[in-house]
Amino acid sequence: MADRKLLNLLDLSFVLMETRQTPMHVAGLQTFVLPDGAPRDYPRKVYEYLRSFPVTAAPFNYRLRGVGSGRLRPTFEVADKIDLEYHLRHSALPYPGGERELGILVSRLHSNPMDLDRPLWEIHLIEGLQGGRFALYCKLHHSLADGVSGVGLLNFSTDPHASETPPIWAADRPRSARAPKVPGRFGAFSVLQAAFASQAKELPNLMQGLAGTVKAVFGVKPDPDFTSLAEAPRTIFNVNVTPQRRVATQATSLERLKAIGEEAGGSINDVVLAASSGAMRRFLLEIGELPRKSLVTSIPVALPRDSNQAGGNAISFANVRLGTDIEDVRERFDVIRRSSTAGREFLKQMSTKTLMDYTVLISSPQILTRLPGIGSRVPPTYNVIISNVPGPRGKLYFLGSEMEAYYPISALFHGQALNITVLSYAGGLYFGFTGCADKVPHLQRLAVYTGEAIDELERVFLGGGDRKAGKGRKVGKVGKVGKVGKGRKAGKVGKAKKARKAKKA
Protein backbone atom coordinates (compact mmCIF):
# COMPACT_ATOMS: atom_id res chain seq x y z
CA MET A 1 0.00 0.00 0.00
CA ALA A 2 1.51 3.30 -1.08
CA ASP A 3 1.93 6.26 1.23
CA ARG A 4 -0.32 9.16 0.33
CA LYS A 5 -0.62 12.76 1.43
CA LEU A 6 -3.89 14.55 1.06
CA LEU A 7 -3.65 18.05 -0.35
CA ASN A 8 -5.31 20.64 1.85
CA LEU A 9 -7.56 23.10 0.08
CA LEU A 10 -4.84 25.73 -0.22
CA ASP A 11 -2.33 23.22 -1.66
CA LEU A 12 -5.03 22.06 -4.08
CA SER A 13 -5.71 25.62 -5.24
CA PHE A 14 -2.10 25.93 -6.47
CA VAL A 15 -2.54 22.72 -8.49
CA LEU A 16 -5.78 24.00 -10.02
CA MET A 17 -4.12 27.29 -11.00
CA GLU A 18 -1.32 25.51 -12.90
CA THR A 19 -1.35 26.36 -16.65
CA ARG A 20 1.27 27.01 -19.31
CA GLN A 21 0.89 30.75 -18.70
CA THR A 22 0.79 30.42 -14.90
CA PRO A 23 3.27 27.81 -13.69
CA MET A 24 2.79 27.58 -9.92
CA HIS A 25 6.33 27.00 -8.74
CA VAL A 26 8.50 29.06 -6.41
CA ALA A 27 12.27 29.06 -6.17
CA GLY A 28 15.29 30.14 -4.21
CA LEU A 29 18.57 31.33 -5.68
CA GLN A 30 21.62 30.89 -3.48
CA THR A 31 25.10 32.00 -4.47
CA PHE A 32 28.22 30.49 -2.89
CA VAL A 33 31.88 31.41 -2.59
CA LEU A 34 34.28 28.53 -3.23
CA PRO A 35 36.48 27.51 -0.30
CA ASP A 36 40.11 28.62 -0.31
CA GLY A 37 42.29 26.45 -2.50
CA ALA A 38 39.36 24.79 -4.26
CA PRO A 39 40.31 23.21 -7.62
CA ARG A 40 38.82 24.43 -10.90
CA ASP A 41 36.59 21.37 -11.16
CA TYR A 42 35.13 21.90 -7.67
CA PRO A 43 31.54 22.53 -8.95
CA ARG A 44 31.73 19.29 -10.97
CA LYS A 45 32.79 17.42 -7.83
CA VAL A 46 29.86 18.97 -5.94
CA TYR A 47 27.48 17.82 -8.67
CA GLU A 48 28.87 14.28 -8.60
CA TYR A 49 28.55 14.25 -4.81
CA LEU A 50 24.88 15.26 -5.03
CA ARG A 51 24.21 12.58 -7.63
CA SER A 52 25.34 9.86 -5.22
CA PHE A 53 22.26 10.32 -2.99
CA PRO A 54 18.94 8.68 -3.87
CA VAL A 55 15.67 10.56 -3.35
CA THR A 56 14.25 9.40 -0.01
CA ALA A 57 12.90 12.43 1.87
CA ALA A 58 9.47 14.05 1.82
CA PRO A 59 8.24 16.04 -0.01
CA PHE A 60 10.86 15.38 -2.73
CA ASN A 61 9.63 11.83 -3.20
CA TYR A 62 6.00 12.90 -3.67
CA ARG A 63 4.34 12.45 -7.04
CA LEU A 64 1.00 14.10 -7.82
CA ARG A 65 -1.77 11.65 -8.64
CA GLY A 66 -5.39 12.13 -9.60
CA VAL A 67 -5.22 15.34 -11.65
CA GLY A 68 -7.61 15.10 -14.57
CA SER A 69 -8.29 11.40 -13.89
CA GLY A 70 -11.78 11.72 -12.52
CA ARG A 71 -10.56 11.15 -8.97
CA LEU A 72 -12.56 13.23 -6.54
CA ARG A 73 -9.47 14.79 -5.04
CA PRO A 74 -5.78 14.57 -6.05
CA THR A 75 -3.18 13.25 -3.62
CA PHE A 76 0.58 13.18 -3.31
CA GLU A 77 1.86 9.61 -3.37
CA VAL A 78 5.38 8.39 -2.60
CA ALA A 79 7.03 7.48 -5.92
CA ASP A 80 8.66 4.08 -6.34
CA LYS A 81 11.30 5.26 -8.84
CA ILE A 82 12.66 8.77 -9.31
CA ASP A 83 14.98 9.81 -12.13
CA LEU A 84 17.49 12.00 -10.30
CA GLU A 85 19.10 12.97 -13.62
CA TYR A 86 15.90 14.85 -14.46
CA HIS A 87 15.63 16.70 -11.15
CA LEU A 88 19.32 17.55 -10.62
CA ARG A 89 20.92 19.52 -13.44
CA HIS A 90 24.32 21.06 -14.07
CA SER A 91 24.78 24.27 -16.07
CA ALA A 92 27.57 26.75 -16.76
CA LEU A 93 27.28 30.45 -17.54
CA PRO A 94 28.82 31.86 -20.72
CA TYR A 95 31.70 34.29 -20.33
CA PRO A 96 32.01 36.63 -18.47
CA GLY A 97 29.70 34.90 -15.98
CA GLY A 98 28.37 38.11 -14.49
CA GLU A 99 25.04 39.15 -13.05
CA ARG A 100 23.50 39.71 -16.46
CA GLU A 101 24.29 36.17 -17.63
CA LEU A 102 23.02 34.68 -14.37
CA GLY A 103 19.84 36.75 -14.57
CA ILE A 104 19.09 35.62 -18.13
CA LEU A 105 19.53 31.95 -17.21
CA VAL A 106 17.48 32.13 -14.00
CA SER A 107 14.67 34.02 -15.74
CA ARG A 108 14.58 31.33 -18.43
CA LEU A 109 14.57 28.50 -15.87
CA HIS A 110 11.78 30.14 -13.92
CA SER A 111 9.67 30.48 -17.08
CA ASN A 112 9.63 26.73 -17.70
CA PRO A 113 6.68 24.83 -16.20
CA MET A 114 7.16 21.64 -14.22
CA ASP A 115 6.22 18.14 -15.39
CA LEU A 116 3.18 17.25 -13.26
CA ASP A 117 3.81 13.54 -13.86
CA ARG A 118 7.09 13.73 -11.90
CA PRO A 119 7.96 14.85 -8.37
CA LEU A 120 7.54 18.61 -8.46
CA TRP A 121 11.06 19.94 -7.89
CA GLU A 122 14.29 20.77 -9.71
CA ILE A 123 17.72 21.85 -8.53
CA HIS A 124 20.18 23.47 -10.93
CA LEU A 125 23.85 23.80 -10.03
CA ILE A 126 25.21 26.75 -12.00
CA GLU A 127 28.96 27.27 -12.27
CA GLY A 128 31.00 29.91 -14.05
CA LEU A 129 30.11 32.94 -11.89
CA GLN A 130 32.69 35.68 -11.66
CA GLY A 131 34.86 35.74 -8.56
CA GLY A 132 35.12 31.99 -8.05
CA ARG A 133 31.45 31.48 -7.22
CA PHE A 134 28.64 29.10 -8.11
CA ALA A 135 24.87 29.15 -7.60
CA LEU A 136 22.02 26.82 -6.77
CA TYR A 137 18.60 27.51 -8.27
CA CYS A 138 16.11 25.40 -6.28
CA LYS A 139 12.63 25.13 -7.78
CA LEU A 140 9.60 23.67 -5.97
CA HIS A 141 5.90 23.60 -6.80
CA HIS A 142 3.84 25.90 -4.56
CA SER A 143 1.51 22.99 -3.66
CA LEU A 144 4.48 21.42 -1.84
CA ALA A 145 5.63 24.40 0.18
CA ASP A 146 5.03 28.02 1.11
CA GLY A 147 7.88 30.42 1.82
CA VAL A 148 8.33 29.40 5.46
CA SER A 149 8.18 25.64 4.90
CA GLY A 150 10.39 25.94 1.81
CA VAL A 151 13.16 27.57 3.83
CA GLY A 152 12.67 24.91 6.49
CA LEU A 153 13.48 22.21 3.94
CA LEU A 154 17.03 23.53 3.42
CA ASN A 155 19.75 21.19 4.54
CA PHE A 156 22.89 23.31 4.54
CA SER A 157 25.42 23.26 7.37
CA THR A 158 26.39 25.88 9.93
CA ASP A 159 29.88 24.36 10.05
CA PRO A 160 32.28 25.82 7.44
CA HIS A 161 34.46 22.71 7.76
CA ALA A 162 31.72 20.10 7.29
CA SER A 163 32.78 17.68 4.55
CA GLU A 164 29.51 15.74 4.48
CA THR A 165 26.19 17.51 3.82
CA PRO A 166 23.41 15.27 2.45
CA PRO A 167 21.23 17.11 -0.08
CA ILE A 168 17.70 18.15 0.84
CA TRP A 169 16.10 15.24 -1.02
CA ALA A 170 18.07 12.74 1.06
CA ALA A 171 17.98 14.45 4.44
CA ASP A 172 17.16 12.15 7.31
CA ARG A 173 13.73 13.16 8.57
CA PRO A 174 11.59 11.54 11.25
CA ARG A 175 9.11 9.01 9.96
CA SER A 176 6.31 11.14 11.37
CA ALA A 177 7.26 13.94 8.96
CA ARG A 178 6.59 11.78 5.93
CA ALA A 179 3.34 11.15 4.15
CA PRO A 180 0.62 9.61 6.31
CA LYS A 181 -1.16 6.49 5.09
CA VAL A 182 -4.76 6.61 3.98
CA PRO A 183 -6.96 3.72 2.84
CA GLY A 184 -6.00 2.55 -0.65
CA ARG A 185 -9.13 0.92 -2.07
CA PHE A 186 -11.60 3.69 -1.31
CA GLY A 187 -8.97 6.32 -0.61
CA ALA A 188 -10.46 9.20 -2.55
CA PHE A 189 -13.92 8.79 -1.03
CA SER A 190 -12.56 8.38 2.50
CA VAL A 191 -10.32 11.39 2.16
CA LEU A 192 -13.08 13.59 0.79
CA GLN A 193 -15.46 12.46 3.51
CA ALA A 194 -12.90 13.29 6.19
CA ALA A 195 -12.26 16.70 4.62
CA PHE A 196 -15.95 17.59 4.62
CA ALA A 197 -16.34 16.39 8.19
CA SER A 198 -13.40 18.52 9.31
CA GLN A 199 -14.73 21.61 7.59
CA ALA A 200 -18.22 21.07 8.99
CA LYS A 201 -16.85 21.32 12.53
CA GLU A 202 -15.38 24.70 11.70
CA LEU A 203 -18.39 26.00 9.77
CA PRO A 204 -19.62 28.45 12.45
CA ASN A 205 -16.20 30.08 12.77
CA LEU A 206 -15.77 30.15 9.00
CA MET A 207 -19.15 31.82 8.52
CA GLN A 208 -18.25 34.38 11.17
CA GLY A 209 -15.01 35.21 9.35
CA LEU A 210 -16.76 35.46 5.99
CA ALA A 211 -19.48 37.64 7.49
CA GLY A 212 -16.81 40.03 8.71
CA THR A 213 -15.26 40.09 5.26
CA VAL A 214 -18.59 40.76 3.53
CA LYS A 215 -19.34 43.59 5.95
CA ALA A 216 -15.93 45.08 5.28
CA VAL A 217 -16.42 44.88 1.53
CA PHE A 218 -19.62 46.87 1.80
CA GLY A 219 -18.13 49.48 4.06
CA VAL A 220 -19.05 48.17 7.52
CA LYS A 221 -15.47 47.75 8.69
CA PRO A 222 -14.37 46.19 11.98
CA ASP A 223 -11.67 48.89 12.09
CA PRO A 224 -11.41 52.11 10.05
CA ASP A 225 -7.85 51.14 9.09
CA PHE A 226 -8.94 47.70 7.86
CA THR A 227 -8.45 47.25 4.10
CA SER A 228 -11.28 45.38 2.41
CA LEU A 229 -11.29 43.18 -0.68
CA ALA A 230 -12.93 45.93 -2.73
CA GLU A 231 -10.44 48.81 -2.38
CA ALA A 232 -7.74 47.95 -4.90
CA PRO A 233 -7.64 50.04 -8.11
CA ARG A 234 -6.77 48.43 -11.42
CA THR A 235 -3.12 48.81 -12.42
CA ILE A 236 -0.73 47.59 -15.11
CA PHE A 237 0.13 44.75 -12.71
CA ASN A 238 -3.43 43.37 -12.82
CA VAL A 239 -3.50 41.83 -16.27
CA ASN A 240 -3.32 38.41 -17.86
CA VAL A 241 0.23 37.07 -17.86
CA THR A 242 2.27 35.26 -20.49
CA PRO A 243 4.64 32.36 -19.75
CA GLN A 244 7.83 34.44 -19.82
CA ARG A 245 9.28 35.58 -16.49
CA ARG A 246 11.89 38.16 -15.58
CA VAL A 247 13.79 38.21 -12.27
CA ALA A 248 15.55 41.10 -10.53
CA THR A 249 17.07 41.40 -7.06
CA GLN A 250 18.10 43.85 -4.39
CA ALA A 251 20.06 43.42 -1.15
CA THR A 252 20.49 45.45 1.99
CA SER A 253 21.13 45.10 5.70
CA LEU A 254 18.45 43.87 8.09
CA GLU A 255 19.86 46.20 10.73
CA ARG A 256 19.10 49.22 8.56
CA LEU A 257 15.42 48.34 8.32
CA LYS A 258 15.25 47.49 12.00
CA ALA A 259 16.65 50.91 12.91
CA ILE A 260 14.16 52.66 10.60
CA GLY A 261 11.26 50.68 12.03
CA GLU A 262 12.20 51.44 15.63
CA GLU A 263 12.45 55.17 14.93
CA ALA A 264 9.22 55.22 12.88
CA GLY A 265 7.24 53.16 15.39
CA GLY A 266 6.67 50.21 13.07
CA SER A 267 7.95 46.72 12.32
CA ILE A 268 10.61 45.57 9.88
CA ASN A 269 7.79 44.32 7.66
CA ASP A 270 6.23 47.80 7.70
CA VAL A 271 9.56 49.17 6.43
CA VAL A 272 9.65 46.51 3.68
CA LEU A 273 6.15 47.57 2.62
CA ALA A 274 7.09 51.25 2.75
CA ALA A 275 10.19 50.70 0.60
CA SER A 276 8.16 48.70 -1.93
CA SER A 277 5.44 51.36 -1.89
CA GLY A 278 7.90 54.16 -2.54
CA ALA A 279 9.47 52.23 -5.40
CA MET A 280 6.16 51.39 -7.06
CA ARG A 281 4.87 54.96 -6.67
CA ARG A 282 7.96 56.31 -8.44
CA PHE A 283 7.88 53.56 -11.08
CA LEU A 284 4.21 54.12 -11.95
CA LEU A 285 4.56 57.91 -11.90
CA GLU A 286 7.35 57.72 -14.47
CA ILE A 287 5.25 55.78 -16.94
CA GLY A 288 2.06 57.73 -16.22
CA GLU A 289 0.22 54.79 -14.67
CA LEU A 290 -0.17 55.75 -10.99
CA PRO A 291 -3.83 55.48 -9.86
CA ARG A 292 -5.31 58.17 -7.64
CA LYS A 293 -6.40 55.48 -5.18
CA SER A 294 -3.79 53.75 -3.06
CA LEU A 295 -2.41 50.45 -4.26
CA VAL A 296 -3.26 47.49 -2.04
CA THR A 297 -0.92 44.64 -1.22
CA SER A 298 -1.78 41.20 0.05
CA ILE A 299 0.74 40.06 2.65
CA PRO A 300 1.04 36.36 3.55
CA VAL A 301 0.71 35.67 7.28
CA ALA A 302 2.24 32.44 8.55
CA LEU A 303 -0.09 30.20 10.56
CA PRO A 304 0.86 27.72 13.30
CA ARG A 305 2.33 24.61 11.69
CA ASP A 306 2.31 20.97 12.74
CA SER A 307 5.87 20.11 13.83
CA ASN A 308 5.58 16.84 11.90
CA GLN A 309 4.47 18.52 8.68
CA ALA A 310 6.89 18.16 5.76
CA GLY A 311 6.28 21.04 3.37
CA GLY A 312 2.80 22.16 2.41
CA ASN A 313 1.14 25.55 2.91
CA ALA A 314 0.04 27.07 6.20
CA ILE A 315 -0.64 30.72 5.40
CA SER A 316 -3.41 33.26 5.23
CA PHE A 317 -3.45 36.76 3.75
CA ALA A 318 -4.12 40.28 4.98
CA ASN A 319 -4.79 43.26 2.71
CA VAL A 320 -2.75 46.40 3.42
CA ARG A 321 -2.97 49.90 1.92
CA LEU A 322 0.38 51.01 0.51
CA GLY A 323 -0.34 54.74 0.56
CA THR A 324 0.94 55.21 -3.00
CA ASP A 325 -1.47 58.14 -3.33
CA ILE A 326 0.47 60.02 -0.63
CA GLU A 327 3.64 61.97 -1.41
CA ASP A 328 4.78 62.56 2.17
CA VAL A 329 7.00 59.68 3.34
CA ARG A 330 6.04 59.89 7.02
CA GLU A 331 2.33 60.03 6.30
CA ARG A 332 2.62 57.13 3.84
CA PHE A 333 4.45 55.01 6.42
CA ASP A 334 1.78 55.73 9.05
CA VAL A 335 -0.98 54.57 6.68
CA ILE A 336 0.92 51.35 6.00
CA ARG A 337 1.58 50.70 9.70
CA ARG A 338 -2.03 51.21 10.74
CA SER A 339 -3.46 49.17 7.85
CA SER A 340 -1.04 46.30 8.48
CA THR A 341 -1.93 46.19 12.17
CA ALA A 342 -5.67 46.17 11.44
CA GLY A 343 -5.34 43.36 8.90
CA ARG A 344 -3.44 41.11 11.28
CA GLU A 345 -5.86 41.79 14.12
CA PHE A 346 -8.75 40.78 11.87
CA LEU A 347 -7.11 37.39 11.17
CA LYS A 348 -6.51 36.72 14.86
CA GLN A 349 -10.27 36.37 15.35
CA MET A 350 -10.33 33.00 13.53
CA SER A 351 -8.82 29.62 14.36
CA THR A 352 -6.00 28.17 12.26
CA LYS A 353 -8.27 25.66 10.53
CA THR A 354 -10.86 28.34 9.81
CA LEU A 355 -8.17 30.61 8.40
CA MET A 356 -6.99 27.89 5.99
CA ASP A 357 -10.50 27.54 4.55
CA TYR A 358 -11.07 31.29 4.65
CA THR A 359 -7.87 31.80 2.65
CA VAL A 360 -9.07 29.47 -0.10
CA LEU A 361 -12.42 31.24 -0.30
CA ILE A 362 -10.99 34.75 -0.53
CA SER A 363 -8.51 33.44 -3.13
CA SER A 364 -11.29 32.05 -5.32
CA PRO A 365 -11.09 35.00 -7.77
CA GLN A 366 -7.50 33.97 -8.49
CA ILE A 367 -8.55 30.34 -8.98
CA LEU A 368 -11.19 31.51 -11.46
CA THR A 369 -8.48 33.26 -13.48
CA ARG A 370 -7.48 29.81 -14.74
CA LEU A 371 -10.32 30.19 -17.21
CA PRO A 372 -9.15 31.87 -20.44
CA GLY A 373 -9.81 35.60 -20.58
CA ILE A 374 -11.09 35.81 -17.00
CA GLY A 375 -7.96 37.10 -15.27
CA SER A 376 -8.06 40.63 -16.60
CA ARG A 377 -11.82 40.92 -16.07
CA VAL A 378 -12.01 39.90 -12.43
CA PRO A 379 -11.73 43.07 -10.31
CA PRO A 380 -8.46 42.90 -8.35
CA THR A 381 -8.84 42.26 -4.63
CA TYR A 382 -5.24 43.49 -4.30
CA ASN A 383 -2.57 44.79 -6.68
CA VAL A 384 0.58 42.97 -5.66
CA ILE A 385 1.71 40.31 -3.20
CA ILE A 386 4.58 41.41 -0.95
CA SER A 387 5.88 38.57 1.17
CA ASN A 388 8.47 38.75 3.96
CA VAL A 389 9.93 35.32 4.77
CA PRO A 390 12.18 34.77 7.81
CA GLY A 391 15.29 32.88 6.77
CA PRO A 392 18.35 31.46 8.54
CA ARG A 393 19.93 33.86 11.03
CA GLY A 394 23.46 32.50 10.84
CA LYS A 395 25.85 31.84 7.96
CA LEU A 396 25.29 28.61 6.06
CA TYR A 397 27.80 26.46 4.21
CA PHE A 398 27.70 23.69 1.67
CA LEU A 399 30.70 21.39 1.49
CA GLY A 400 32.96 24.21 2.65
CA SER A 401 31.43 26.88 0.38
CA GLU A 402 29.89 29.88 2.12
CA MET A 403 26.39 30.95 1.08
CA GLU A 404 26.77 34.67 0.41
CA ALA A 405 23.22 35.50 -0.70
CA TYR A 406 19.74 33.96 -0.79
CA TYR A 407 17.13 35.45 -3.16
CA PRO A 408 13.48 34.26 -3.20
CA ILE A 409 11.66 33.96 -6.54
CA SER A 410 7.89 33.55 -6.54
CA ALA A 411 4.96 32.61 -8.79
CA LEU A 412 2.64 34.78 -10.90
CA PHE A 413 -0.89 34.23 -12.12
CA HIS A 414 -3.50 35.98 -14.24
CA GLY A 415 -4.33 39.32 -12.70
CA GLN A 416 -1.01 39.40 -10.80
CA ALA A 417 1.94 40.20 -13.07
CA LEU A 418 4.29 41.26 -10.26
CA ASN A 419 5.43 39.64 -7.03
CA ILE A 420 7.85 40.98 -4.43
CA THR A 421 9.26 38.50 -1.93
CA VAL A 422 11.83 39.34 0.73
CA LEU A 423 13.96 36.88 2.70
CA SER A 424 16.27 37.53 5.63
CA TYR A 425 19.53 35.65 5.87
CA ALA A 426 22.59 36.11 8.12
CA GLY A 427 21.93 39.78 8.84
CA GLY A 428 21.03 40.62 5.24
CA LEU A 429 17.67 41.24 3.59
CA TYR A 430 17.27 39.95 0.05
CA PHE A 431 14.51 41.20 -2.28
CA GLY A 432 13.37 38.98 -5.15
CA PHE A 433 11.25 40.68 -7.85
CA THR A 434 9.36 38.34 -10.19
CA GLY A 435 7.54 39.92 -13.11
CA CYS A 436 5.87 38.93 -16.35
CA ALA A 437 8.48 39.81 -18.98
CA ASP A 438 5.84 40.90 -21.48
CA LYS A 439 3.69 42.98 -19.10
CA VAL A 440 5.99 44.65 -16.54
CA PRO A 441 8.61 46.78 -18.30
CA HIS A 442 12.00 47.56 -16.79
CA LEU A 443 11.67 45.27 -13.77
CA GLN A 444 15.29 45.91 -12.79
CA ARG A 445 14.41 49.62 -12.46
CA LEU A 446 11.84 48.75 -9.80
CA ALA A 447 14.55 46.90 -7.89
CA VAL A 448 16.84 49.92 -8.04
CA TYR A 449 14.04 52.24 -6.88
CA THR A 450 13.38 49.97 -3.89
CA GLY A 451 16.97 50.45 -2.76
CA GLU A 452 16.67 54.19 -3.20
CA ALA A 453 13.37 54.17 -1.27
CA ILE A 454 15.22 52.57 1.66
CA ASP A 455 17.77 55.38 1.44
CA GLU A 456 14.90 57.90 1.56
CA LEU A 457 13.29 56.25 4.60
CA GLU A 458 16.66 56.34 6.32
CA ARG A 459 17.07 60.06 5.61
CA VAL A 460 13.55 60.89 6.78
CA PHE A 461 13.51 58.87 10.00
CA LEU A 462 17.20 58.68 10.91
CA GLY A 463 18.48 61.94 9.51
CA GLY A 464 20.81 60.42 6.92
CA GLY A 465 22.23 57.19 5.62
CA ASP A 466 25.64 57.36 7.27
CA ARG A 467 24.55 56.28 10.72
CA LYS A 468 25.33 52.93 12.31
CA ALA A 469 22.23 51.41 10.79
CA GLY A 470 23.66 51.90 7.32
CA LYS A 471 26.30 49.21 7.65
CA GLY A 472 24.36 47.08 5.23
CA ARG A 473 26.61 48.29 2.45
CA LYS A 474 28.60 45.13 3.07
CA VAL A 475 25.64 43.08 1.92
CA GLY A 476 25.08 45.00 -1.26
CA LYS A 477 25.05 48.66 -2.12
CA VAL A 478 21.57 49.97 -2.13
CA GLY A 479 20.64 51.50 -5.43
CA LYS A 480 22.08 48.63 -7.41
CA VAL A 481 20.39 45.37 -8.13
CA GLY A 482 21.95 42.43 -6.34
CA LYS A 483 23.29 39.28 -7.91
CA VAL A 484 20.64 38.61 -10.52
CA GLY A 485 19.28 40.49 -13.48
CA LYS A 486 20.65 43.43 -15.40
CA GLY A 487 21.69 44.94 -12.12
CA ARG A 488 24.62 47.12 -12.88
CA LYS A 489 23.03 48.51 -16.01
CA ALA A 490 19.89 49.17 -14.04
CA GLY A 491 21.94 51.15 -11.58
CA LYS A 492 22.58 53.69 -14.31
CA VAL A 493 18.95 54.65 -14.51
CA GLY A 494 18.88 58.41 -14.34
CA LYS A 495 16.66 60.72 -12.43
CA ALA A 496 12.97 60.18 -12.70
CA LYS A 497 11.29 61.91 -15.55
CA LYS A 498 8.92 64.66 -14.68
CA ALA A 499 5.93 62.91 -13.16
CA ARG A 500 2.79 62.91 -15.19
CA LYS A 501 -0.50 63.61 -13.53
CA ALA A 502 -1.83 60.61 -11.68
CA LYS A 503 -4.38 58.67 -13.61
CA LYS A 504 -7.78 58.03 -12.23
CA ALA A 505 -8.19 54.59 -10.66
Mean pLDDT: 78
Cα radius of gyration in angstroms: 22 Å
Beta-strand segment tally = 15
Cα separation of the termini: 56 Å
Spans of at least 5 consecutive residues with low confidence:
173-199, 216-220, 307-313, 465-483, 485-505
List the SSEs and their pairings.
Layout lengths: L3 E3 L2 H8 L8 E9 L8 H10 L10 E4 L9 E4 L5 H4 E5 L6 H13 L9 E9 L3 E9 L5 H6 L34 H15 L1 H15 L27 E9 H11 L3 H19 L9 E7 L12 E7 L7 H19 L4 H11 L1 H5 L15 E6 L7 E2 L2 E9 L8 E8 L2 E9 L6 H20 L24 H4 L15
Parallel strand pairs: 5-6, 9-11, 11-14
Antiparallel strand pairs: 1-4, 2-7, 2-13, 3-4, 6-7, 8-15, 9-10, 12-13, 14-15
Q: How would you explain this protein's 3D organization?
A:
There is one protein chain. This protein is an alpha+beta fold and 505 residues long. The chain has a domain of 344 residues. Helix content is 32%, strand content 20%. The strands form 3 sheets. A 6-stranded mixed beta sheet has the order 5-6-7-2-13-12, with helices on both faces. The longest helix has 20 residues. The protein is globular, with a radius of gyration of 22 Å. The C terminus is likely disordered.
Please give a quick description of this structure.
With 505 residues, the chain is α+β, with helices and mostly antiparallel strands. It has 14 helices and 15 strands. Helix 7 packs across helix 11.
Characteristic key phrases:
505 residues, 6-stranded mixed sheet, alpha+beta
